[in-house]
Amino acid sequence: MERTKVNVAVGIFLVLGILALGYLSIKLGRVSLFGSRGYLVSADFPSSAGLKVGANVEIAGVPVGSVESIRLKDDQAHVVLRMQPQIKLTEDAIVAIKTKGLIGERYVNISPGGSERVVPPNGQLREVQPPVDLEELLSKYVFGKV
Q1: Whole-angstrom Cα distance, residue 73 to residue 45?
Q2: Domain co-membership, 52 together with 12
């Protein structure tokens, strides 16, 4: 009788541990089980320069979405962004690829515009800033071409 209670307690503890591990794996891995919420918008950059699928999209330093896909379209990087449903982007919003820190990860930064017109789902953000290439800037500085 005592051994059965111990076996049941160990079994319950093991199941709870596996469930906790699964939950953490999904949350930390940014995996969506039942489809992603939000809407898609896209932007065309001359270069995506180190940007990866799953990178953050931020407005004023606050994460508001993620990079859904990156592909080549008409010799430019076509970046599709998944935005949170409550975020409304205006037509004149400026989209830029930035770097966190000096050698940090790349992310997409959006500076809100002043227009009243909102970009619809599956719309296109037209105002883009190309990413800064630090290697190119350093080589220009070192060789005196700045």
Answers
A1: 10
A2: no
